[in-house]
Design a protein that fits this description.
The structure holds two protein chains of two kinds. In chain A, a hairpin with a 5-residue loop joins strand 5 and strand 6. Chain A is mostly beta strands. Chain B is mainly β. Chain B is built from no helices and eleven strands. In chain B, strands 2, 4, 5, 9, 10 and 11 form a six-stranded mixed beta sheet that branches. A five-stranded antiparallel beta sheet of chain B has the order 1-3-8-7-6, with no helix packed on it. Chain B starts with a strand and ends with a strand. In chain B, 37% of the residues are buried. Classes of the chains: A mainly beta, B mainly beta. At the A-B interface, strand 4, strand 5, strand 9 and strand 10 of A face strand 4, strand 5 and strand 10 of B.
């Protein structure tokens, strides 16, 4: 079964509104989670690293004031897309490492965001 | 700047035959490589990985080959099955870090 969940699975919102996406590790604790973004027919691009108890670290070119990340607990990270615009429409995926080598991280099912 | 490249966006193969997916990378710091399978509207699922100290890793129908000098790796699936139809992503990390750099993916279609 799934070990990382995301909610909602899809969301449609109006331009200018904010949208919150949750990422949960279901049966393990994750002090670090990762947020990726995937454009159609393109690779997953790492946006930021979510750190429990400290600020998120953002990849170059990602606006931290636009994409707010909060690692609220050892099993929950949230990504808030603020003042969403149509160009923010994308597929957002989180991942959580379970410990061990790089292949022991699990990806959530993703959230499809459509901004009208 | 795409550090991991999958130059073939799609691959069609007949059931029972071998599927070969290729991946190239440019960052010499990468030392751990992974392949993921992804269905539409789902997150990637891990398939197989290889460390730079090896040149081959096999797991059932899946084998990954690594050529460090050429900065190239490939995934072989044999025999291909209809359930293998999906998008396959190559990913790489440095020092076995959890931060992954992904290729653009190759869509595999297995024909019955």
């Amino acid at each position: 079964g799934a070990v990382v969940s995301q909610h909602p699975s899809r969301v449609i919102c109006k331009s200018g509104t904010s949208v919150k996406i949750e990422c949960r590790s279901l049966d393990f604790q994750a002090t670090t989670m990762f947020w990726y973004r995937q454009f159609p027919k393109q690779s997953l691009m790492l946006m930021a690293t979510s750190n429990e108890g400290s600020k998120a670290t953002y990849e170059q070119g990602v606006e931290k004031d636009k994409f707010l990340i909060n690692h609220a607990s050892l099993t929950l990270s949230t990504l808030t897309v603020t003042s969403a615009h149509p160009e923010d429409s994308s597929f957002y995926i989180c991942s959580a490492p379970r410990g061990g080598p790089a292949d022991t991280q699990y990806f959530g099912p993703g959230t499809r965001l459509t901004v009208l | 700047d795409q550090q991991v490249k999958q130059n073939s966006p799609s691959l069609s193969v007949q059931e029972g035959r071998i599927s070969i997916l290729n991946c190239d990378y440019t960052n010499s710091m990468f030392d751990y490589f992974l392949w993921y399978k992804k269905y539409p509207a789902e997150g990637p699922t891990f398939l197989i990985s290889i460390s730079s100290i090896k040149d081959k890793n096999e797991d059932g129908r899946f084998t990954v080959f690594l050529n460090k000098s050429a900065k190239h790796l490939s995934l072989h699936i044999v025999p291909s099955q209809p359930g293998d139809s999906a998008v396959y992503f190559c990913a790489a990390s440095a020092s076995n870090d959890y931060k992954l750099s992904f290729g653009a993916g190759t869509t595999v279609t297995v024909r019955a």
